[in-house]
Amino acid sequence: MNTQEATYKYALRLGDSALVLGHRLSELCSKGPILEEDLALTNISLDMIGRTQALLKYACELEMQGKTEDDLAYRRSENHYYNYLMTEQPNGDFAHTIARQLFISVFEYLFYTELEKSKDATLAAIATKTLKEIKYHMQHSVEWTIRLGDGTAESHKRMQTAINDLWMYTGEFFEMDHLDMFLLHQHIAVDTHPLKAKWQDYIKTALTEATLIMPIDSYMQTGSKKGIHSENLGHILSEMQYLQRAYPDAKW
């Protein structure tokens, strides 16, 4: 594996996580608990799709196969996607949507802050742009976590349940495989191991203020870096890829 091939796969991983979460959040359009929140979730979804486009476009340039970002987004099979398992989890109730966004946004804030230092100029530029959006995503999810956790007995119960249910997907954020290590040695990739303690501190602070209990690390569900996913991704792709599969090369 050379640097160009490794960077292609790295950009693909990042793009896939943004794509799948963007799609998940788009499912909530017109379904927010209040109008303002409906707009907020839709805007976060658009931010994710914008990041997807930048990352997958760069991946296409590195692959040099004449593909477009649309080809990568819509014309791969399930085991050729590398998004974090957290991103494909169902929206569930509003508490689950917020808990998922809390875990991901705090991690992304720490991750893209480090990626901004990458020797790969394109990845660094994407990180700089997306950090402005991620700061809002993180603030939004933290405020709602506190509001729900320290709200009514029902909202507190639902928020704690969501935190407990999704915790098993957080360990994957900090895994490093041979591709990560290869690019890390070239000062391109982010070393996620040191980010775990910082992430836990951020999460613990938010949960404490929300009067919620942070789960204890136990079993963690992983596999996305090998193309292993939950059944949820297949359902997402069947909907997301329908038009491209039914009408290949269709033009508007």
**Major sheet size, sense and barrel closure:** none
* Mean of residue pLDDT values: 94
Overall body shape = globular
> What fraction strand?
under 5%
Helix percent reads 55-70%
Q: Assign the CATH architecture.
A: Up-down Bundle
Alpha-beta classification: mainly alpha
CATH topology category name: Ferritin
Our count of domains comes out at 1
What are the low-pLDDT stretches, counting only 5+ consecutive residues below 50?
Answer: none
Radius of gyration: 18 Å
Structure description:
The chain is mainly α and 252 residues long. It has a single domain, classed as Ferritin, core subunit, four-helix bundle (Ferritin). Helices cover 64% and strands 0% of the residues. It is built from 10 helices and no strands. It has helices at residues 3-26, 35-63, 69-74, 94-115, 121-149, 153-166, 178-184, 195-209, 231-240, 242-246. Helix 1 runs antiparallel to helix 2. The radius of gyration is 18 Å and the shape is globular. 39% of the residues are buried. The model has no long low-confidence stretch (mean pLDDT 94).
In short:
With 252 residues, the protein is mostly helical.
Features:
252 residues; mainly alpha
Give the helices and strands, then pairings.
Layout: H1 3-26, H2 35-63, H3 69-74, H4 94-115, H5 121-149, H6 153-166, H7 178-184, H8 195-209, H9 231-240, H10 242-246
